[in-house]
Amino acid sequence: MNYKKIFLPLFAAIALTGCTDAFQGEIDELHVEVDELSGRIEKLEQLCSRLNDNIVSIQTIIDAIQDKDYVTGVKPLDDGTGYTISFTKSETITIHHGRDGSIGADGKTPDIGLKQDSDGNWYWTLDGNWLLRDGKKVRANGEKGEKGEPGSMGVDGAQGKPGITPQLKIDEGWWFVSVDNGTSWTKLGKATGEDGAKGEDGDAFFRSVDTSSEDYVVFELTDGKTFRVPVYKPVELVFTSMESVGTELGLGAGETLPVEFEVKGGTSDIVVTITTSGSFKAYVDMISATRGVVKITCPSIYDNGVITILATDADNHYDLKVLSFYERKFSVGDVFNVGPAGGTIKIPYTANFEFEVDVKDDWVRVVKTKADSYEGNVELFVEPNDSEKTRTAMLTVYPKDNKADLLNSYTTSFEIIQASAVFSMDKTGFTVPSEGGRQSVGIESTRDFMVKTDPAEIDWLSFTLTEKEDYKYTLSVELTKNEGEERSAEIILCSPDGDEEYGIVAVRQLSPATDVKKEMVLRGSMTNLNGYKAILPIFGEVDLFIDWGDGKSAEHVTRNVASSAPISHEYDHIAKYYDIRISGSASRIDTYLLKANDLNYLRQVIQWGNLEATLISFQNCVSLEEISGDSELAFQNLTSFNDMFNGCLNLRSIPESLFKGCTNAMSFENTFANCEAIEEIPGSLFKDCNNVKSFNGTFSKCHSLSAIPDQLFLYCKNAESFNKTFSATSITQIPQNLFRSCADASSFVSVFESCTKLESIPESLFDGNPAVISFNFAFSKCISLTSLPTGLFDNNRKVEDFSYTFAYCNKIQGESPYSMIGGKKIHIYERYTLPDMFLSPTYTDCFLSVSNLTDKDEFNRQ
Length: 862
Fold this sequence. Notes:
By secondary structure, the protein is mainly beta. The strands form 15 sheets. Strands 39, 41, 42, 44, 45, 46 and 47 form a 7-stranded mixed β-sheet that branches. A 4-stranded antiparallel β-sheet has the order 15-17-20-19, with no helix packed on it. Strands 16-22-21-18 form a 4-stranded mixed β-sheet, with no helix packed on it.
């Protein structure tokens, strides 16, 4: 209230009646009183404003605690009477500390306070008593909202009720309080009276604000109560396994890289997410609430890209980091062989980063590396090897000045192998047929040596020694024809004085009775992939002599061999080819009884020999590349060649004499099925196989096969079934006389199915096959066919099934095949009209998905 308005009329009246000296003094005193009263009123209004500010502030602090809010800043006021406090969610507040004295003798400032009740909630007080509204305590902290209903379409819970904030005002010299946002006011007490003592600046709420802790701000009220609000710390994503971020980092193609991180600060509920570009893959594995690992996988074919990592707290504060990568490339051979004499060697390389080379073996040291160049030589010095063993040193390449960096370390390595000073040979023995011949032995030695034989005088064996290059020699051994018993000798390689023996080559020459032509000879490649181990696919009752080709004595095996305990042999760990010679007798040769990995050493059948086996099969021998013809008639007594080479994916060719003399053969079902590398078929392959009944699937899925010999089945006059014989091959044409000799052939189900490159069909293809019953699926999916010979099936009048014969051959145009009977066309679908000349065949979906036939409607109408 402006009390000057009360006295102005009085002053005016006095002025109108004139001023006398007597009244002048009283008027001056009144002016002083009015000025003092106005000052008190102005001070009360300032106090009221600060009280309301602090009430709002304490309300905000209570709400911040309940809502899990955070303090982001505390700034002192310029006049030193309080602070400005900012929060992550709540509005900024200003608080004042200290207390004013009474304004006058009968004027009193309302004492608004807080008190926690037994229910755990805070309620407002007035002059130490509960502040009531309609008889109820006024609650300062808000009520929590109700929990929503569960489920993706659940109903939201009811919103919580906020706490009530009291308001103060001064009107007509009285204090008033409102607890309903100013809608109604309750009169409290006088705001003015006689002069009161001057109090300290401030109000009745805050005594102090403590910011000494890094984690909390403590607000203390004048009654000693304290409220603690946590200090907000910004979200910070820190990579603990690397020194820098935002830079390009080396990563190899297909390599997986773990990047450890820690999230500092934030409010709560830290969530780490990642996004990738290019073909990179990444996922987060959280170890704790704030620590984890980002596992990044580079594509198998390198592609530039970046990984973006985002850390977010519950209040959507975040920190974002970006990792970018490039492919480190260091190209150098894997293995470098060094002679036993050692010396300086230069290893060429190309690289796209600066590197260093580390070697742990003391017999190799790095002389020079042009680490700052994209290409050059790693220069090494290798000490002489005086030991009796070959030794290996592994050299590791890593980024220059970055050897200990877990993230950027480069694991590429290359190997130095130094030969031992001990005499070495590539074979320690061999077997020669009775006809004699020449064999050679490769020798490497840093020592001088001589060659002699035991016995010393041998008239059937001679040798020569030649040097090919430094430390490498060839020992050529010549044997004459043996017409007597089996014989043997030793070739001894020793020191020049004869005192020290370096090695022995055992020579064995067969007699005519055990001629090598009877031996099966297999060639195997022994590497670490097969553990330098050969397992023979020979089972049943056996009586065998096995020369494993590594110079050791032949092994004699006589037992019933089961797949659980096959015949096997381990070689010294030297990667090379070995010829395995097997003589004697065995009842069964069958790769099907072994695991595929057991046969990955087998590369070639050099000679079939004749072990008198009643079953021979190399099915699923995927490493087999070459086979020989059967010059020894090992197959002559076999009746079935079913699946013999089925699944030999790398078999490149078929010898023309493979089935020579196989007059007892009855079936060649799936014999070469899935031999994807075979491109040609010998024209006289089945010349001796005149009793065969079935060629079902013989060349099915030979995807590289592009042509069929015209006279392939010329001598197979008893053949009855050609189901899937050439299905899924790459043939473009069919010889017109292919089946002409097979008058008894009755089934051609799927014979050329899925031959997607087949362009045409000869009209006389089936003229020699009057007994055919089924052409079911015969040319299905031959998508390159554009037309059909009209008389294709003219001589096949016993056919019962034409179902799906040309299904999905969607490029075929023109008229469907027919026979001319009495000058009239009789199509497949019309054969039922002449039961004396044709059987009534099934032709369901014969031309399924073929829409361009001129008689399509007639065909479908039947």
